[in-house]
Amino acid sequence: KQSDLQIAIDGPAGAGKSTVAKLVAKGLDLFYVDTGAMYRAIAYKALSSGISINDEEKVSQIAQRTEVMLDHSDERLVWCDGQNVTQAIRNPEVSRAVATVAAYAKVRERLVELQRMEAARGGVVMDGRDIGTHVLPEADLKIFLTASADERARRRWIELQNSGRNVSFEEVFQDMQRRDRQDMEREVSPLKPARDAKILDTTGLKVEDIVTKILRLAQEG
Ligand code: CDP
Ligand code: CDP
């Protein structure tokens, strides 16, 4: 990669982080690292191994043992112990379980280590909840993306409809509210803007306009 620029993008669910982060990474020739996919992979593994996700010790053991790999091709496949879980980690069951798993200190410790290893390979755009506050505190640019709760749930609902999953808007809205609350209220690295983050409210904004804005901020340095 050409530069060692680090851009952190945090925010609640459905704010547009991954869509925007991918395009910013492409525009600046940086790696894109989806840290949410890593937490989802651990939640998926815990669910499919039949343990209770409320069992912190067992879930932490799973996090230690599981190999999570994000590929950097355009397909952005997610691998978990050699299994392609790219689709599976977007299941509603995983979405409902992931914030519980992500609240465990040992799970976070292990994944933050992986995330910093990714960043050590070269310039990155990394998205998540604690990138600006904890994972990359020295990032060159920190963005906190948000949008109204209604719009964020609508975006995710449309996405689920398009992938053939028949869920009601109300269900998506409630699940998302609950997950955001869990992410904001946990003790370890809760979701919040870093002190030096730029807060962008994207309600009613198009993806390309947000990307343009972030590219401009990155160039201003
Ligand atoms: O795409 P969406 O915003 O729905 O979620 P995600 O980015 O895939 O993240 C899924 C979950 O992983 C979040 O709700 C958090 O519980 C957890 N997460 C986290 O705790 N820290 C991160 N850096 C990224 C995700
Ligand atoms: O990663 P995060 O959960 O923050 O959001 P995302 O997965 O990037 O975006 C959720 C959905 O909203 C995607 O289908 C995007 O295409 C869509 N989106 C949108 O319609 N308008 C925006 N300004 C941003 C995202």
TrEMBL record:
Q: Name one Pfam family in it.
A: Cytidylate_kin
Q: Which GO terms describe its molecular function?
A: ATP binding; CMP kinase activity; dCMP kinase activity
Keywords attached to this entry: ATP-binding, Cytoplasm, Kinase, Nucleotide-binding, Transferase
One of the record's GO cellular component terms:
cytosol
Q: Cite the EC number.
A: 2.7.4.25
Q: Does the keyword Kinase apply?
A: yes
Question: Where's it mainly located?
Answer: cytoplasm
GO BP, one annotated term: pyrimidine nucleotide metabolic process
- Matching InterPro entries, A to Z? Cytidylate_kin, Cytidylate_kinase_dom, P-loop_NTPase
> Where, per UniProt, does this protein localize?
Cytoplasm
Binding locations of ATP: G11, P12, A13, G14, A15, G16, K17, S18, T19
Q: Does the keyword Transferase apply?
A: yes
| Catalytic activity line of the entry | dCMP + ATP = dCDP + ADP; CMP + ATP = CDP + ADP
Q: Gene3D superfamilies recorded for this chain?
A: P-loop containing nucleotide triphosphate hydrolases
Tell me where in this chain the Cytidylate kinase domain is found: 7-219
Q: To which protein family does this belong?
A: Belongs to the cytidylate kinase family. Type 1 subfamily.
Q: Which HAMAP family match?
A: Cytidyl_kinase_type1
The protein depicted here goes by the name Cytidylate kinase
Protein encoded by which gene? cmk_1
